[in-house]
Amino acid sequence: MIDSHYEWQVLADETTQADQQLADSLGLPVVMIQLLKQRGLTSATAIEAFLNPSPDEINDPFMLFDMERVIDRINEALMNGEHITIYGDYDTDGITSTAIMYETLMMLDADVDFYVPNRFTDGYGPNKAVYERLIQQGTQLIITVDNGVAGHTAIDFANEQGVDVIVTDHHEIPQELPAAYAIIHPQHPESAYPYKHLSGVGVAFKVATALLEEIPQEMMDLVALGEIADLVPLTGENRVLVAYGLKMLAQTTRPGLQALMELAGVGLHEVSAEQVAFGITPRLNAIGRLESAKIGVELLVTQDPERASDLAQKVNQLNDTRKQIVADIVTEAKAQLAALDLANQKTIILAGDGWHEGVLGIVASQVVELTHRPTIILTQADGKLKGSARSIADFDLYQALAPHEDLFTSFGGHAGAAGLSLPTANLAALKTAFEQAADAQDVQLGMKAPLIIAEKIPFEAVNEQLYAAVQKLAPFGNGNEQPYFEITGMVTDIKQIGADKTHLKFNLAANDTKLAALAFGKGELGAGLLIDKAPLNVVATLSENTWQGQTSLQLMVKDLQQGGLAIIDQRTNKLRPDIFKAPGQYVFFNPKVMQQLLPYINAESTAVALTNGDQLVDNVSTILVDLPKNLADLELLKGYQYKELRVIFYTAQHVYLEALPTKADFGKLYKYILGHANLPIRAELSKLAKFLQIGENQLSLMITVFFELGFVRIENGVLNSLPNPAHADLTSAPSYQGWITKQAIEKQLIYSKTSELTKTLAQLVSQ
């Protein structure tokens, strides 16, 4: 049995006759009507408008409060030759916002440069020390992008120096706005702008449109990047901007983007929001996580192909470094998790020496995914802790941590994420406060994170026509999520793929039809899947895979579950202490092997010698440690209920791949024995094997056969022939027959494929 990682929640109602009629009138599969209803679209008119985004939905930028004032001030700066500095941010939204504003002002022949704050030295948003430096260097007008709405101190300083600051931002508006020259914000309290959810790059694009007095279509590729990266809702105006932006991205002439997309494996002919989110965004975000994000802006705006190629290579290398840093920290974090009492702990706080602070949010998200608990990940240096927090759906991080600001040297965030720093001495108090907050908000242990499923559909409904229809809902993202479907079939052709076998590839089959399926990060489940034994339920999105010019439908699996007995293949030829850490009952077929390994079995587990008459306990994890002497010993596994069956089948000596000695081999050895008295066989076995050109294992077997049949005697490790031995068939010796039996057992239990082994054991224990 394989249980689901998430709690599956199916949204779809039963299909009605009206649904079918609407589907027929629109030429859509009826499944699509459920998907559209879930988006609040119930009429043919609303559906047509949603499926066909129009530029008419792009709002007039002058509807934004203060836009005329901003355009007048920038035009004044242009006429007077004032030096303008664009003050950006280090994530993808900030990088693209900076690039758009910089390109726009360059098109207008402005005296302009840009500054991207450093995450580690400048922090987020307006920094007084940086503003002071920029002003000393000649800046006469500062335009912020994707930041500034909370930058009171730095903006007040600029005002004192006679330098105006124009803020363009989309982040949460504070109770008191800074004293900027103007603030462009879709949620400005005095704004009548009809769409409130633009990202930073969306706001910058609005300023660019107003300045240029037309929509700069050539910049919409950058708009798509920033909007998708910042996870703003892909509804309304954002949906239109991203839809057209993706089309521009597919034909971008930016050398930097072309080079980066090639390295990311993103096609230039058709680009999806998913490709941006998983291929381009992580690479651009990696820059600011590890060093100055200035090169990200340079990558986007340069027209020099050679420079673009160099920058793209550097960005790609930074992303590879970022992934390795994350992997290393996650490994250490998992080791810390293993030492925690998670059964009685609702929250998690982990700290490590020298963990890279630029990736702690990613690590926190991964720990939340693993444990479904609110998590804080901290790095420690010089008696200080700094880190990131991530939450689960039913726990408000800000509400939990804000009342304890006295513990922090800095703190900020919202319900789902937060950043904080504190003295190391306050860590224990933070752990107590965090756990108490989980109690106060009634966080329930053992609850799975919800996974919203659009609809459970029959296997035969999954086809190219459905895929094409679903794609009409794109671009997918926050507020317009790609639909998950629940699909059932039989699993075949399982493969663990990836450099470290962490991913799973298989086919889902029904009625002589197969669907390819890919499950990232679920490689360890492959050994437990029952092939052709029990139906497999998967929750997946639909995608296409192109290989050698052929395109086929593919399921991208988010979660899966399967009834029946889970048989997990852990076969190995080298035992390690960590194998025995997991709680369960460890089954041995050889009592001597059990005695040798008892010290490694933890106190929560039991050791069972089945061949000694020991009994198993039902419904616990059962681990078959050593190899049975014969297949009949496996019959002792019948009649029990298993939570899961883990298979090691260790044996110290493998014989399956070694040939049985021939009659000529026996003759050669016997002739040698007759010519040599008092052979120190125990001490000289290796030398004798080399001399006779026979393998050591075969030589040991042959000597044992001679001993069992009365051809030789062995005393104190010394071998001599016996006079006038009785004639006997060499193959009748018990050791010879045992070798044959062991070869057969190894063939079936050790050298078989996982699918063959699981089928054998499943049939056996189900009898």
Automatic annotation (TrEMBL):
InterPro entries: DDH_dom, DHH_sf, DHHA1_dom, RecJ, RecJ_C, RecJ_OB, SSDNA_exonuclease_RecJ
Top-rank lineage group of the source organism: Bacteria
Keyword annotations: Exonuclease, Hydrolase, Nuclease
Domain DHHA1: 345-437
One of the Pfam families matching this protein, by short name: ssDNA-exonuc_C
Single-stranded-DNA-specific exonuclease RecJ C-terminal domain mapped to chain residues: 567-759
Statement: the UniProt record of this protein carries the keyword Hydrolase: yes
Stretches assigned to the RecJ OB domain: 456-559
Domain DDH stretches: 83-226
Stated family: Belongs to the RecJ family.
Name this polypeptide is given: Single-stranded-DNA-specific exonuclease RecJ
